[in-house]
Amino acid sequence: MAIKNKIIRHSAIEVDALFDKEHQLIEQVKSNQLEQVLLLWQSKQQTLVLPAGKKWPQSDDLIDALASAGWQLSARKTGGAPVPQLPGIINLSHIYYLPEEQQYDIKAAYLQLCDVLIEFFKTLGVQVDVHATANSYCDGDYNLNIAGQKIVGTAQRVLLKKGGGRVVLSQACIIIDADVNKIVEPVITCNQICHNPAHIEAAVHTSLFDHITERPSVDELFQALTEAFLSHLPR
């Protein structure tokens, strides 16, 4: 199969429109039109994204409570807990084909993504560590942290491909320039309404611009992420 790679960037897009585009790209990889895609994006509006499942129902109470605070509500089929999206948080989706003879190793796949992100932060003069972050939203073992504070959350989804092999959707959500007190508020509201006991603290999160003096534009950050992928991922 010929190698077909694609890079797509959206500096401001509605979350639902992005998820539709992401689904289309997954289908293109599943049908051999593409081999891998790097999708970089930032939400146009404040939106809380729920993972799929009965644990997180999009109830009228939740929709109304979020709307009164200026937040929209959406959902996707990855992640384990609610995630806030708004300008100041940038996202990465790496969609790629994994041949049938190549075994999927979830830890290796996560670490491959983390290695690329570590390289991205190095170019900005920032050191990050990979570990879970107690009391962070959508906590996971493959968070990236600066001095113990979460700056990146990651997630993965694996789909079987007709005819053999898999399609992997590998994601990262990076806090660039956002008020951490503000971004945890809709998550806390959602947990309360959905009767989820998770305790979320703003102080365990951090923003990139709190650790660097220069403030690259979104396009410059997208370019740095792209270069980290091109230089680090196997061809």
UniProtKB/TrEMBL annotation:
Where in the numbering of this chain does the BPL/LPL catalytic domain appear? 32-220
Keyword terms? Ligase
Which InterPro entries has this protein been placed in? aa-tRNA-synth_II/BPL/LPL (IPR045864), BPL_LPL_catalytic (IPR004143), Octanoyltrans_LipM/LipL (IPR050664)
PROSITE patterns per the UniProt record, alphabetical: BPL_LPL_CATALYTIC (PS51733)
Entry-linked Pfam families: LplA-B_cat (PF21948)
> Which domain of life does this protein belong to?
Bacteria
Q: Which GO terms describe its molecular function?
A: ligase activity
Gene3D superfamilies associated with the record: Bira Bifunctional Protein, Domain 2
Q: This chain belongs to which protein, by name?
A: Lipoate--protein ligase
